Amino acid sequence: MSFRWLKRYMPRSLYGRAIAILLLPVITLMLVVSIVFVQRHFEGVTKQMTRTASREVQVVLDAGLPASEIGDSRLARTLRISVEALPLDALPSGDSRRWYDFTGNYVISEFNRLLPMLQALDLPDDQVVHLYFAMEDTGLRMTFDRRRVSASNPHQLLVYMFFFAALMTVIAYFYLRNQLRPITRLAYAAEAFGRGRHVEYWPSGSTEVRAAGAAFMAMRARIERQIEQRTLMLSGVSHDLRTPITRLKLALSMLEGEDTKAMEQDVADMERLINEFLDFARGAQETTPEPTDPQALVARIVEEFQRVGKAVALGHCEGQGEVMLRPGGVRRAVENLIGNAVRYGTRAEVSVLMTDRALRIRIEDDGPGIPQAQREQALKPFARLDEARNQNLGTGVGLGLAIAMDIARAHGGTLRLGESERLGGLQVDLVIGR
């Protein structure tokens, strides 16, 4: 039997599931105890007390006294039963009790079973019981204390049970919260590191949680060392590569002739390709996250493209506020995406959507787009989709989308490719969680 349908009703958070695990057995135990208590106490005890009271009533009826003398008899006074004579037409026609009087149902059934001559039984409240009998020429109403057929304060056990169950649940919750807090701290630190932020963390809690926390800190330290070493290496490589290129450009500028223009173009292409390789290797790690207004950042990028004559428009922007971003990395990703859009299309449009949970920067163009079957391949480094994106229009090396994807992942986000409904070309969504 499958219980997958229960998943939609289960809590998502660790605290919610822990509380469910804590409360489920407690509630189940309370229900079982309540059912057993009702069956054994309400039913068993009430029936036993009703049998005793019915025997006393039967003794009074079997005394052989006239109906007018039963109430004044010594036997009735000793058994504390009040007897009153009534006209036959004043007797009720059926039993009555309050709808929520659970023990009253057992009292009525037992009296009717043990006293065949009983005409009617009335349980008006928790104080008295009225029994009605039809004699030969008159009727009788016997009245006695309700406590003789029902236990007094039968709800006390249930009250105590619910009170102490709630008390122990609260105590267990505070203890459980102290055990879960180190796990939530570890999850928060891991999520922040996945988004490129460094959060202070130290292992605490149980042995297993401490071991996981120590492993996370060691992993984070190794990754940070690798990032630092890569940054230093890239700085050296950038300097070593740019120096001979600068010398070549300087030497070519001193030469004359038609051949030098082609050589200068080759050197410019070489410099651009090296910059793309370095951007891909550098990713988004050269800056630290800081509060950034994404709408203002995107607006400045669009203005820069418009200033150089590119057909780029700023579309609908929704939501306000700041997001923890690496401005340099996000700028590089958006510039690469807009550059691809205007290279393979005639115009591009950029929009920004901010919600409580995510930031989405969308770039749309009117170019040929990318078929759905090739979109996953397009996000890989050095991918060249000649048929889809008409690569002969540019001299790229297939790193634009890969750089944007790497930057999105460094922010804990992703890059989604689709088809633009507005412009008919490619639609790229840079999605970053908040």
TrEMBL record:
Domain named Histidine kinase is located at 236-434
Q: Which residue spans adopt a coiled-coil conformation according to this UniProt entry?
A: none
- Where is this protein localized, as stated in its record? Cell inner membrane
This protein's membrane topology, according to the annotation, is: Multi-pass membrane protein
Q: Which Gene3D superfamilies match?
A: 1.10.287.130, Histidine kinase-like ATPase, C-terminal domain
Question: Which keywords appear in this protein's UniProt record, sorted alphabetically?
Answer: ATP-binding, Cell inner membrane, Cell membrane, Kinase, Membrane, Nucleotide-binding, Phosphoprotein, Transferase, Transmembrane, Transmembrane helix, Two-component regulatory system
Recorded GO MF terms: ATP binding; phosphorelay sensor kinase activity
Record EC number: 2.7.13.3
Query: What is this protein identified as?
Result: histidine kinase
Species for this entry = Roseovarius atlanticus
